[in-house]
Design brief:
The complex is a heterodimer of chains A (112) and B (166).
Chain A (H helix, E strand, L loop, with lengths): L15 H21 L3 H26 L3 H31 L13
Chain B lengths: L1 H21 L3 H21 L3 H26 L11 H25 L16 H10 L2 H23 L4
Helix pairs in contact in B: 1-2, 2-3
The chains are: A mainly alpha (112), B mainly alpha (166).
Chain lengths: 112, 166
């Protein structure tokens, strides 16, 4: 494999914008899933994907500034996501017990 | 080697995310989301954040996704049905999202063009020792508040999952 590429190829670095644009792409896919899907569990997973994308931005800037604070923030985001998943999935269980459906179109009691 | 690893795992992450968005069954979406999280953990290691990478694997793809799979197993509703109600979101959503992504990429490219690139091994402050030091000195109060938040979340989840609500 090493003979296929010139040796400079393995010394290439990644621009900071590479990580940030990857994070933006993942966030946009998360928003798209959140908007277009009709299953409440999939919508919930889209929120986790968006939180992950934001974490990547935090860790990238922690690397750029050479400080650990961004990583601490992404750690707190993880903890909050865990708490949110526990409560949110309990709510989903509750709603399914009362309504016997997971389609978010059917959860329109608060509408109008 | 940096670029090869970054491109490989960035492509895996984006492909898994798109697959998560397209799959009809929630279990397939959950497995794709695990793929995204594992490749993000590899990218964290490339960025020098070893502790966060380990926490990502343990907390996200371990605990949270297992919780999701448990709930999917408990409810067992099968693939989702398409509905006609989301007309506005379908017509306006895709162009607006493309505009969002384009503007974000443009701003990012302009703002970070002068910044130094990421090099593996240049930043070594992401081990458990450094993160723990900051966490228990400067960020001690947020850390303790987080423990109260988790306590409330446990109580709330217990209450919601146990009692029959009127």
């Amino acid at each position: 494999m090493y003979s296929l590429f010139p040796p400079e190829f393995f010394k290439l670095t990644i621009p900071l914008s590479g990580y940030l644009i990857l994070s933006a792409i993942l966030f946009t896919i998360g928003v798209a899933t959140f908007l277009f899907r009709r299953n409440v569990i999939t919508v919930f997973m889209a929120i986790e994907l968006m939180l992950n994308a934001v974490n990547l931005t935090f860790v990238t800037f922690s690397n750029h500034f050479g400080k650990v604070d961004g990583q601490i923030f992404s750690f707190f985001v993880m903890v909050v996501a865990a708490a949110e998943a526990a409560v949110g999935l309990a709510i989903i269980l509750m709603v399914f017990r009362n309504r016997s459906t997971l389609q978010i179109d059917d959860f329109d009691t608060l509408k109008n | 080697m940096d670029l090869v690893l970054f491109l490989t795992f960035a492509l895996i992450a984006v492909a898994c995310a798109i697959n998560m968005s397209l799959q009809r069954h929630p279990v397939s979406s959950a497995l794709s989301l695990v793929g995204v999280m594992v490749s993000l953990a590899v990218l964290y290691v490339l960025l020098g954040a070893e502790f966060i990478a380990a926490a990502q694997l343990v907390v996200y793809s371990g605990a949270i996704m297992v919780l999701f799979v448990f709930v999917i197993m408990l409810l067992n509703t099968g693939a989702e049905k398409m509905s006609k109600k989301a007309g506005t979101a379908h017509f306006l959503g895709f162009p607006l999202l493309v505009i969002l992504l384009a503007v974000a990429s443009w701003v990012i490219t302009n703002a970070t063009s002068a910044m130094k690139p990421v090099k593996f091994g240049a930043f070594t402050g992401g081990g458990p020792r450094e993160v723990g030091w900051e966490l228990f000195t400067r960020y001690l109060l947020p850390f303790e508040v987080t423990s109260i938040l988790i306590l409330i979340a446990i109580a709330g989840a217990y209450r919601l999952a146990n009692k029959e609500m009127d």
